[in-house]
Amino acid sequence: MNVIETRGLTKYYGKARGIVDLDLTVREGDSFGFIGPNGAGKSTTIRTLLGLIQASSGSASVLGRDFVRDRQAILREVGYLPSETMFYAGMRVRDVLKLSADLRHADCGAEARQLCERLQLDPGLRMESLSLGNRKKVGVVCALQHRPRLYILDEPTSGLDPLMQREFFAILEERHRDGATVFLSSHVLSEIQRHCSRAAIIREGRLAACGDVAELSKTNAKRVTLHGKAELSGLPGVRDWKETPDGQSFLYSGDLRLLLKTLADAPLTDVSMAEPELEEVFLHYYTEGGEPA
Amino acid sequence: MTVFKHELRQGWKSLLVWTASIGFLMAVCIFLFPEMKGEMESVSHIFASMGGFTAAFGMYRLNFGEFHGFYAVECGNILGLGGAFFAALIAVAALCKEEKEHTAEFLLTHPVTRTGIVTAKLLSVLAELLILNGAILLLTVLSVLAIGESPDWHKLLLLHLANGLLQLEIAAVCFGVSAFLRRSGLGIGLGLAALLYCLNIVANLTEKAEWLKYVTPFGYADGAQIMTDGLDAGMLAAGMAYAALGIAAAYIWYLRKDIS
User: Fold this and answer.
1) pTM of the entire structure?
2) Interchain proximity B109–A75, CB inside 8 Å
3) Which residue in chain A has the smallest CA separation from B98?
4) Which of A110, A206, B103, B179 has CA 20 to 30 A from B247's CA?
């Protein structure tokens, strides 16, 4: 079963582009990464799916239900963590958690206490006294305490310290093992690479690529590192050229024989070729007119 | 119900302050009446011959030496203005405050319908107005009894009822406005209440502008008119029609609004 399925989903803010013709499929049990820089359309996609904004055209289903008609039923089984978590002033943490549970007509007291303990969040704190990180933790507990089937997390670790990030992902992996689906929107690629099995890359509101994280990382481009000098000008397929202390490094997607012929006469002490990092693949999608490397 | 209770919890301090302030001012006026009663008899004719000022507040129709006349102008204006400002304040913030304070994302990503949210917020505004008016009326009655006056309770209650309806109308219109806003509407709300108050003064000043009484709820809640002619059904009907439009606009717009 597809937990999220969009068909030609489009959102324009007046004349400004939000997302265009987005076809996205997230399967049940997936740990799905949604990658893109600020303004690419990640949050617009999520906000459209959650019914905060209306799609200009296209259709979508979440948990097998129509995202417009069955919005309330969908939200009952979704845990959403926004990128910026804001709450009502004048309340304590426990009041916000209780309000969130009450809005779901659920008793989440035991689960909330456990999550607060694991995330080292004091439920007695006043909301206005919370640091950015603690506010994020409140958002995490609100999104997790009712044990939803689908987690939609928008930049979940921003504001959390590394220890809390580790604990957060540990909890998330437990939930994933229990059968929940995770939709993780982020521009921290290492997070996606470490915690997601499938991912989609969004670029200027359009889907640039979608597939297994391992597959996305696997391209015909290689990261070439040379120790020594070599003249590469005029060699087609060289990108992301960088000078290193004793040589140079670049992504190469051209003819391998041509590269080897060029390097054969160069005074090099060492040559290494490796698969590029997901980050390098990602950056490629954001170069002008980038096609899969 | 959760949203309704949450709204009341969020607004109780402001409700308490406004209720206490309006109630206190009205009680002070009532307690001043016995002392001023004798002097009022002699100044009544002065108040009745101050030209535009007299016309603006309808004072030519009232006797300041009588409790009704005094109450309609003094307490009527305090309740009218204070209640209108409070109604405008809470109603214009009701929907847009969620976006202004960035809490809309929290609220609307829970399994609650937008219709449910609008209804709960509208009911909480009405409940706050009911509490405010109930408490003020109670305080007023106790104050009147304390000074030993025995007014025509029917007229006095009618004045309070008219002011309650005035607040309802302003709240409903501001509630509609709130649905269209993303930032604070405080200025718009208070400005609208003040403008409507001024429109009634203008309508009192010249016959040519009497039609303004069908625009402003201060027309049917005018103390002088209530004490002499009662509640004008035509003006009230126009006011309730504006209120219905405001509420309808809130539902229609908020249900299809993109939440920022």
Assistant:
1) 0.84
2) yes
3) A88
4) B103
